[in-house]
Amino acid sequence: MTNIDLQDIISLRQEIHQYPEVSGEEKETADRIKKFLSQFNPDQIISEIGGHGLIAQWKGEEEGPSVTIRAELDGLPIQEISDLEYKSTKQNTGHLCGHDGHMMMVAALAKILAKEKPKKGKVNLLFQPAEETGQGAEAMLNDSKFEDIQHEYIFALHNLPGYPKGEIILKKETFASASKGIIIELDGKTSHAAEPENGISPAQAVAEIIQQIKVLPDTINELEDFSLVTIVHAKIGERAFGTTPGQAVVMATLRAYKDKDLITLDNTARKICEEISKKHNLSCDIADTEVFSSTINSPDCVELIENAASKNGFETQYLEAPFRWSEDFGLFSQAYKGAMFGLGSGEETPSLHNPDYDFPDDIMDHGIKMFDGILKQLVY
Questions:
Q1: 120-174: per-residue pLDDT in tens?
Q2: Fold (topology level) of 178-291
Q3: In terms of CB atoms within 10 Å, which of 67, 268, 313, 324 comes out highest?
Q4: d(CA 239, CA 226)
Q5: What's the pTM?
Q6: DSSP 8-state class, residue 350
Q7: What residue spans define the domains of the chain?
């Protein structure tokens, strides 16, 4: 497999780590990536796809498949806690999921493609905005500029703390769960706390909604596989001891291995909320947020990933069950033939989304060689 100098790759990763941008605001990050890619003579770079997304493309001389390798641009709205020289310079914003590392493993392929263009087909290096909110993939897929580029295969990885560094984590079919957030707003009537009978309080409705929707995975017979409901927030009225509350909000995350089970969970939760609200003379409004489809891996693509790991001499591990977390890559892997794999980032590495997490640069080479190994099987 191709070896390249990683010094500038690691330096840019650490620079990007210093200047993270949250979902939808990744302009400077995309500009840094575009400037780096431009050095390596892509046939074209298309910017501002579905927001700040971009694609750099290298074309082969012969007909062949169009292969896309995807990374994410966005950071998280979390305050970083570290003593790193390159720690985040932005308040309450940090690259605490490893997207900075993912970006550079994909961007590093430009060095390889500049030295050895694909013999056939096309290679697309894709940098997606707004992964953390579940909005970026859909925005890119719906952009006409994205439709103008062929995508027959699509691959991505995610670094995984808790697994040995450099180990490749594989799963056929469902790799990661579908999920969505629901925001349940209840509206009644406020009154003086001394005269609750003159108001319509949502307090009892909130208690019943929480009790009933959190146990849905145990009470719905139609569910085919794992599902989970997590209550993440609830608020009744204000901090006013003289007031009987008239408004309330409950927020929950619904999660399932299968998209159809997520739909069943969602429909049932809505029905319960509406029935309870009606019983207590409340109006009820339910909104969705951060919607993710399940990430489905093509068995053929998993085989290509396993071959790349074998040729590089990397250890592999097959998952027994999908991950419970969700990934915006799911929309891509359902639209095209593709797969996501995991890259172990250390058994002692802090968990993803933790304030002290930092992408370990010593696994950078593993990710680059894996993607290069996949491309070698398809376009060379």
A1: 999 999 999 999 999 999 999 999 999 889 899 999 999 999 999 999 999 999 9
A2: Alpha-Beta Plaits (3.30.70)
A3: 67
A4: 38
A5: 0.94
A6: P
A7: 7-175+294-378, 178-291
